Amino acid sequence: MLARRLVYFLVLLLSTGVYAQPAAEATLAGLGVVSGGVEEQVKLKLFQNTHHLLQGRADADFGKMKFKSRLFANNEVKFTLSIADEEAPLAFEAYFDLATFAMELDGGGAVLDAEQKKLLAKTADALGKRLHEKYDEIPPHGLMLVQMMAYWSHSPDDYQHHKRLIESSYQ
Length: 171
Fold this sequence. Notes:
This protein is α+β, with helices and mostly antiparallel strands. It has helices at 2-14, 23-31, 114-134, 140-153; strands at residues 33-34, 38-39, 43-49, 53-60, 63-71, 76-83, 90-97, 102-106, 110-111, 160-161, 164-166. A hairpin with a 4-residue loop joins β7 and β8.
C-alpha cells in the first residue's frame, strides 16, 4: 500500500508543472558527458544509510554537496541539502507528508547554475544506484531525496527556488 501511495505522490510531484524542459535537453542534462566524451563522476560518501536516516555528501570537480534525509514514524519525510557556492552555500529543504501527500519545498530563493544542476543530477543518479544495490525497495526518505535532486537539476536557467506548499485532495 505504501509503495502505491509513493508512486501516486511522485506522479503528483512531477505533474505540478512548475517547470519543464524538452525531453532531449532533460536527457542530456543527466548524462554529464563533457567535450571529448569523458564521463564526469561524483564521489559519493554515505555516513548513514538506514531505513530511517540517509546522510552523506557528494564531491566532484564541478561542485560539492551535503544531504540528510529522515523518515519519521508518522510517515513524514524531511530532508536538507546544501550545495557549496562561491558566495554562500545554497540550502534546500523539503517536507513530505506521505499520508496526506502534502509537501513543502524551499530552495531559499536559490538560483542554480549549470554546474550545480549537473551536481544534483549526477548525485541523484549515483545515490539511486547505491540505494538499489542495498534495498529491494528503496525507503521513502531515500526515494524522495533522489527524486527531488533529479527534479531540481532540471530547473530552467535563472529559475529562483522559493518556498512552495503543495497540498493534495487525495484521501
